[in-house]
Amino acid sequence: MSIQKVINDYLHHISEAKQPSTIKRYRYDLVQFTEWLQKTRKDDKMIKLPTQEEISSYYLYLKGVGTYSPNTIRRILSVLRFWLQYAGDTDGSNHIGTLIKKTKLIDTITPLPFFTGKKSS
């Protein structure tokens, strides 16, 4: 079975539980990953699920691009993790879980002075 078929099956499987905008985002993340994977694989075959080494390389790629915040990287990895869980790749899914833990969240909420007890300048 091709990776694209597994992606399509997965998106169909979750389509009733997720909003259309979420499905669109998941599809984008998965297509982006498979395009990267196809460029990096020597044999150009898109039949096998990604190896842990390929997953680690993609993680380094996401970090190196410079346009993704840690929060976005965590979201992309989460999409890949759920997809691999669906595909039955427990090792790959667990590996992604480790990478997610390594990626620190950025607090996007700026506390207001009355919450922190500090006076504003």
Total domain count: 1
The number of helical elements comes to: 6
Strand count: 0
Report the helical percentage: 55-70%
The proportion of strand residues reads under 5%
Shape: globular
Give me the CATH architecture, please. Answer: Orthogonal Bundle
Question: Strand count, sense and closure of the main sheet?
Answer: none
Class based on secondary structure composition and strand pairing: mainly alpha
Order of helices and strands: HHHHHH
> Ends: how far apart?
61 Å
Radius of gyration: 17 Å
CATH class: Mainly Alpha
Average pLDDT taken over every residue: 87
**Low-pLDDT residue intervals, each spanning 5 or more residues:** none
Q: Which fold name is given in CATH as the topology?
A: DNA polymerase, domain 1
What would you give as the CATH superfamily?
Tyrosine recombinase, N-terminal domain
Topology diagram in text:
Blueprint: H1 3-14, H2 20-40, H3 52-65, H4 70-87, H5 90-102, H6 113-116
Helix pairs in contact: 1-2, 2-4, 3-5, 4-5
Which labels suit this protein?
single chain; 121 residues; mainly alpha; globular
Describe this structure in words.
This protein has 6 helices and no strands. It is mainly alpha-helical and 121 residues long. The chain has one domain (3-116): Orthogonal Bundle (DNA polymerase, domain 1), CATH 1.10.150. Helix 3 (52-65) packs parallel to helix 5. The protein is globular.
